[in-house]
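Pinned message: reference record for DUF2304 domain-containing protein
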Amino acid sequence: MAISISVVLLLAILAVIFLRNGGLKLSHGIVCLLLGFYLAGSGIAPAIHSGLTATADIVSGLRP
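Predicted structure (tokens):
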């Protein structure tokens, strides 16, 4: 659960930065938000979740 919260926080920060710099319009942000909700309720959601979990495990295992 902590990984998903941090990913949501990171994506929210990026969205705010893009909105402030003019690279992302409000309508584009709303479309992305709706797409996320629809993907979360679809059959592909477990595959997305396992892919993100595997990526987070790989990144957390890297040593600088």
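Pinned by admin. Summary line: The chain has three helices and no strands.
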